[in-house]
Amino acid sequence: MEEYSLDEPIIQVVLSTAGAIRTKTKIYVVHSMAKSLYGEKQRIEEFTIADFTSEEIVDMKAGAYHVVLLTASGKVFTHGAIAHGQCGREYVVDDFGNTAGFGQVLLPKVVQIDTGRLFTFCLVDSRTLYAFGANNYHQLGVSQDSRTVSLPALCDLKNVSGNVLSVHCGGFETIIRTSKFNLQN
To answer: So what's the pLDDT on residue 39?
Structure first.
């Protein structure tokens, strides 16, 4: 494994098949964490936050092949593979089939983000939740009957009791925590 040195303290680390490290001014995206287990070289991309936003990054999540950032004002930025729509935006593709840099997802002010293996959720308020990415098992809860949702779609919350407090994702699962403490799959 190759040693990598950072010039400033680490603020946050997120891991999935992809991973990312956040410092005050940089995001380091590690592509395909699994490759190192088999002796293949990992690819690390370094991004300067100021190149795509002047705002403070307050949260970061990683799916299998994508990274999602949330700013203090509720803007969402994504980077990574686009095969399943998990980046939720129009894109330019680099030589590796990933989005070229971080780009903003067009959404109202977001208060929470989370990622599953190949999808992303963005909570706007207690009754407004957006999702995009792989929908193979209808885990996005959107009205589109599609295996891939490439741009943010509103989740159908009509059968959810109470206000949405948070959303939590795993590989292919999604749990919505509400004020009524019901679990929705």
So the answer is: 54
Residue scoring higher pLDDT (134 or 37): 134
What average pLDDT does the structure give for the chain? 86
Dist. CA 133–CA 113, nearest whole Å: 14
pLDDT score of 61 more than 50: yes
Question: Could you tell me the strand order of the sheet in which 148-154 lies?
Answer: 112-115, 119-125, 128-134, 148-154
DSSP states of 76-138: EEEEEB-TTSTT-S---B-TTSBBSS-EEE--S--SEEEE-SSEEEEEEETTEEEEEEE-TTS
**C-alpha 25: how far from its chain's center?**
19
| Sign of the dihedral through C-alpha 91, 122, 6, 44 | negative
Q: Can you list the domains of the chain with their CATH numbers?
A: 12-184 (2.130.10.30)
CB atoms within 10 A of CB 64: 21
* Greatest alpha-carbon span in the chain: 50
Q: Say how far apart CA 65 and CA 30 lie, in whole Å.
A: 10
Q: What is the mean pLDDT of residues 117-125?
A: 95
Phi and psi at residue 119, in whole multiples of 5°? -150, 165
pTM of the full structure:
0.88
Higher-pLDDT residue of 161 and 37 is 161
Q: Edge-to-edge strand order for the sheet containing 19-22?
A: 12-15, 19-22, 26-31, 43-48
* Tokens representing residue 101 in the block: 């840099």
